[in-house]
Amino acid sequence: MKLTFWGATRQVTGSMYLLEVDDYRVLIDCGANFELDEKEKKALYDLQKSVFPFDPSLLNTVLLTHAHIDHSGNIPNLYKEGFEGQVVCTEPTYSLTALLLKNAASLHQRRINTINGTAASKKKKGKSARELPRDIFLEKQVNEALENFFPVAFGRRYRISDQITVTYIPAGHLLGAAHIYLEVRENGELKTLCFSGDIGRKNYPLLVDPQSVPQADYLICESTYGNRLHEDTRPPEVALADVIQRTCVDIPGRLIIPTFSVGRTQALLYTLNRLYLTQNLPPLKVFSDSPLGFASTKVYQKYARMLNREAREFKEEHDMLFDFENLIYVESNDASRAISNYSEPCIIISSSGMIQGGRVEHHIAANIENPYATILMIGYASENTLGWRLLNGQDTITIGKEKKSVLANIEKIDVFSGHGDRDDLLGFVQMQKSDQLKKIFLIHGEEQSMSQFRETLHQHGYGQVEIPERGQSFDL
Question: Which residues form the Beta-Casp domain (predicted)?
């Protein structure tokens, strides 16, 4: 069998791996690549004459580890380009992926409207119109894709071909996220592979801990935090209560928390609910300003039986995981902008987590010059995003073509990061016996993180560690 690495190689996003067993082809994940700008993507797609470096019509099955868009975001384009097979994933992953892909389709429609508006203007001036990007898909393509999803349960073996059996194992990280364990019988020999997906953390709000996987011959392991440890070791409730006390109680301030709508928002709301019940916090208004976050929260409620024991017991005792007095879900854009007129101390939770697009941008714009406001970053922000600039201490930022001084307080905690750190990743690898593991492939991380994690693995007796390049194939 042959394994080819087509995404998240020496970078974080765009997970996509092609496994070929005789004439049966399996794609593990099909994520959007956020490392390339529009010009770079166009050049790549034109070179390939496709969004993909392979013919999607020749694929038999897609196995999806979890819903995040850097793992699922190009699935509709597979169907646009001729794929006719099924996408196998867990039930919560199906529900969350549906929300994320429909949200992406809505954003694509806005891009089309902008391009068409520009094209009409150019036509009047006698200039050529801009062609639509190849990777744009609309809700029609999303619905077509979703009709072909096949939800499966954790812990059960499913045969997807005469030679291949797959088992989904809880990975933490996100509701429904999985390690994928493959058993492949080829030429009378059994070979096993484990794709880690994104590895979660122990004791994370709402989510189960990552579960152990059986011994594998080949391990394909993410390395996002391969060279660093989480800085804040306090429980999430303690860390968040400390920030709220200092920013909204000790001074009559406003706390703005940029966050991702799927996963991080639910962890925050659940933690706030617990704090209000146990810490006697004053009745601060909490504005949850993300329609996608609200829809995702409903999915978490629907699959509450799949959350960790603490969350299930909390729900049984208090009935509601996320709703509490003073929580306001903000729906319309007008209501979102009206929050700026609320003069009392409050907490605003809004997407996106890197402050790159989304409603959070106008909250930042309205409060960045307010010394009584605090912007709390709770996750990773990639280079050159607005969040990255704030974390790196820029004195001024530009939002919507307007330059503003950074007078608000900027803070960071990493207790809500959904990724396991170096020690968590090492613990995951150490479930495998080094003398039985034929090779480890490191994916889904910055190149420096991968290199340093490879050294860590070498120090612990794991010698066969590869860092594949895009398009590199291995015969297994």
Answer: 265-390
**39 vs 61: CA distance, rounded Å:** 30
How many C-beta neighbours within 10 Å does residue 47 have? 9
What CA–CA distance (Å, rounded) separates 376 from 409? 8
The CATH fold assigned to 236-412 is Rossmann fold (3.40.50)
Q: Beta strands of 352-443 (E only): which ranges?
A: 373-377, 396-399, 402-405, 409-412, 439-443
Residue 99, C-beta contacts closer than 8 angstroms, at least 6 positions apart: 67, 262, 292, 295, 296, 299
Q: Among positive and negative, which fits the CA dihedral 55, 80, 32, 156?
A: negative
Q: What local confidence, expressed as pLDDT, does residue 129 receive? A: 54
**How far does CA 24 lie from the centroid of its chain?**
29
| pLDDT, tens only, 332-375 | 999 999 998 898 999 999 998 888 888 999 999 999 999 999 99
CATH topology of domain 2-228+420-475: Metallo-beta-lactamase; Chain A (3.60.15)
75, amino acid identity:
I
Per DSSP (E only), the strands in 34-156 are: 61-63, 86-90, 149-152
Domain boundaries defined on the chain: 2-228+420-475, 236-412
Q: Cα separation of 403 and 363, whole Å?
A: 15
Is the pTM higher than 0.70? The answer reads: yes
pLDDT at 278: 84
Task: Encode pLDDT of 254-271 as tens digits.
Answer: 999 999 999 999 999 999
Question: CA–CA separation, 121 vs 101, rounded Å?
Answer: 30
Q: Mind giving me the DSSP string for 195-223?
A: E--S---TT-SSSPPPPP----SEEEEE-
Contact indicator for 408, 377 with CB cutoff of 8 Å: no
Stated as kind and residue range, the H or E segment containing 361 is: helix 360-367
